[in-house]
Amino acid sequence: MTKQNYKDYKDFLQDDRFIFWRLTDDCDLKEEWDAFIVHHPALKQEFEKALREFSKIRLNKDDLSDVEYACLQQRIRKSVSLAERKKRRLRMVQYAAAAACIALLAGFSIYFLNSVPEETGSTFHELIVGENLEEKDIFLVTGSGTMSFSKDIYVQIDKTGSATVREADGGKSTQLAADHAMMNKIVVPYGKRSQLELSDGTKVWINSGSALEFPATFTGKSRTVHLAGEMYVEVAKEEQRPFLIQTSGLRIKVYGTKFNVSAYQDQDAPQSVVLVEGSVGVKTASQAETFLVPNEMLTYHNAQVAKKQVNVSAYVSWKDGYLVLQQTPIADVLKQMERYYNLSFDIQNYIDLQAKTCTGKIYLSDDLDNVMATISLLSSTKYTRDDKKIYIDTNPLK
User: Fold this and answer.
1) In sequence order, what are the beta bridge partners of 308?
2) Per residue in 187-229, pLDDT tens?
3) pTM of the full predicted structure?
4) Which residue, among 359, 394, 385, 396, has the nearest Cα to 115 in the 3D structure?
5) Percentage of the residues of the chain whose pLDDT score is greater than 70
6) Could you tell me which residues are beta bridge partners of residue 246?
7) Of 86, 98, 137, 309, which is most buried, counting CB atoms within 10 Å of its CB?
8) Residue 75 gets which letter from DSSP?
9) Contact 149, 168 (CB under 8 A)
10) Contact by Cβ (8 Å): 214, 228
11) DSSP 8-state code for residue 168
12) What is the per-residue pLDDT across 254-284, written as a single tens digit (0 to 9) for each?
């Protein structure tokens, strides 16, 4: 077994052989993985973390009706049978088929059912049609001018306001001079993400389809940035100088904390603040300041403010490369996929999608087919792809 491209525990969780070993306790594979760790001791810690994460799998049969469960079992038998016919040539397809089918019962994000060929002549019922759109660059506007980047970027601003920009995956590094007389802006299109460290040490994760305005250095009695879109923030603590985030509807006041802000320019979507730790105050144009404590979420929609307790991991895990879904409507999941992967789904005429939900965990792989196959497994739908077109059958078991 070769090292391949393992960097952290998530790479093991997306590996066919690792998944099949943990699901079946295959003796031959155990010997292979034991030998692998002996030869790659630097990966031992991440490997052990992957084992711990995989052990959190819980069976999820209760989320399926008896009819759906019976149909699922039939799909499993069919998938394994098809793989068995080709096992001399495609042994790993058998692993993948078994792993993917069991994954639906476990509520866990394993991606491989699509690897098994389907019989011809099948028909769809209700189709959701999506399209993979053309990629766009990230734009960074500073006093040095406007620069574009085809990869995700990490921007670090020092205390003097000078910026270092590094592209992901070992891409180029660029130095930019400071301009204290103007606001800088980073525009992250759908399909991209970026990180930013501000001059005060505040760390920001910027999600797809977002724009953030920020100064080279903070002056005056507050530290103010402007957001359209979504970001996760770890604010550097300064007792005498609060951190302020301004969106189109919210003014968020922070002294030192970790939280997520979602303020996409979508009239149908509420703006929200989810607090991980610390405390924040949120004010709207028409209402007094509302304070949050950890594990609380404030939403603002149609001039109305609401507050409730939430599992924060469902709202902040995107920054770590995965999504936690808890009875999440598939329509909401597809909206997240649109932003994260630069897709466009036609879901306006599918009101019943709110009744079809997903529960589980999706690792946001670079391979879109893996992710869409996971969604189809977790939501009991069927996914196919033809070049840039994506088709989701919402009733594959009927």
Assistant:
1) 297
2) 999 999 999 999 999 999 999 999 999 999 998 899 999 999 9
3) 0.69
4) 385
5) 75
6) 226, 251
7) 98
8) H
9) no
10) no
11) T
12) 977 999 999 998 767 889 999 999 999 999 9
The whole-angstrom separation of Cα 311 and Cα 333 is: 17
In angstroms, the CA 48 to CA 12 distance is 10
The encoded tokens of residue 273 equal 């603040």
Residue whose tokens read 């970001």: 231
Beta-carbon contacts of 35 under 8 Å, excluding residues fewer than 6 positions away, are 1
d(CA 242, CA 48): 41
Nearest to 176 by CA among 191, 193, 196: 196
Asked if residue 363 lies in contact with residue 14, where contact means CB atoms within 8 angstroms, the answer is yes
Note the pLDDT of residue 346.
79
What tokens does 369 get? 């087919």
Both tokens of 20, joined, read: 């099949």
Q: What tokens does 85 get?
A: 């016919």
- CA dist 29 and 153 (Å) reads 38
Structure tokens at 175: 């130095």
What's the rounded Cα separation, in Å, for the pair 76 and 36? 30
Top-confidence range, 22-36, 112-126, 292-306: 292-306
Give pLDDT tens digits for 93-152: 444 444 444 443 333 333 333 333 333 333 435 677 888 888 899 999 987 788 999 999
Can you give the pLDDT at residue 299? 95
Distance CA 384, CA 393 (A): 9
β 203-206/194-197 pair status:
antiparallel
Do the bridges between strand 280-283 and strand 127-132 make them parallel or antiparallel, or are there none, so unpaired?
unpaired
- Rg of the Cα atoms in the chain: 23
Confidence (pLDDT) at 325: 87
